[in-house]
Amino acid sequence: MTDMETISENMNILLKRKEIEAKVFSEGPTPRKDEIISMIAKKYKTKETHIDLNSIHQKTGSHFSVCKIKIYDKPIRDSKPKEEETKATDEPAPEQKIEKTEETEQKTSEKKPVEENKTEETKDGDKKENTEQKDGE
User: Fold this and answer.
1) Which of 3, 38, 101, 128 could form a disulfide linkage to 25, CB 3.0–4.6 angstroms apart?
2) Looking at residue 31, what is its pLDDT?
3) d(CA 22, CA 51)
4) Which residues contact 9 (CB under 8 A, 6 or more apart)?
5) Given a cut of 60, is residue 70 above it in pLDDT?
6) Are residues 39 and 65 in contact, defined by beta-carbon separation less than 8 angstroms?
7) How many CB atoms lie within 10 A of CB 29?
8) Which residues constitute the domain of residue 64?
9) Model confidence over 6-29: pLDDT tens digits?
């Protein structure tokens, strides 16, 4: 990624953002999102947290990508890397794990099947025992 050319630039006063369409010239594969964001931040002298890169489109065999970018007056995302956030939210606290297992044990012990014996008379007058299982709900 060596160069960037602005195709159009509009200021949206209502949403307090600058909407930009630009061509990013590159050799090889489509440039990564973070590379383009850092290039835009340098060119427009703003922080990377204020930039939203909506799309990157590169036709097969071409050496440029058309990008749609929005630069906001205020930060739109945290400056923390995404890896730290996912690690913190993936696993619940150890106390929560213990509570869940105790609740599950109580529910399973309440739902043990109860056997009832019923006797039925057949047409011949013989008595027949049926054993049925019922949930103890």
Assistant:
1) 3
2) 87
3) 14
4) 18, 19, 20, 21
5) yes
6) no
7) 8
8) 3-72
9) 999 999 999 999 999 999 998 888
| pLDDT one-digit tens code per residue, 78-133 | 766 555 544 555 555 555 555 555 665 665 556 555 555 555 565 666 655 555 55
Smallest CA-to-CA distance from 7 within 21, 19, 18 is with 21
Two tokens, residue 4: 């960037």
Residue type, 99: E
Domain membership flag for residue 14: yes
CATH code of the domain covering residue 31: 3.30.70.3370
Tokens (6 digits) for 134: 């019922």
In whole angstroms, give the CA distance from residue 105 to residue 94. 17
Give a yes or no: residue 105 inside a domain. Answer: no
- 20-24, 47-51, 64-68, 87-91, range with the lowest pLDDT: 87-91
Query: Which two three-digit tokens encode residue 136?
Result: 């103890």
**Amino acid letter, 45:** K
- Token reading at 122: 């057949």
What is the pTM (predicted TM-score) of this model? 0.54
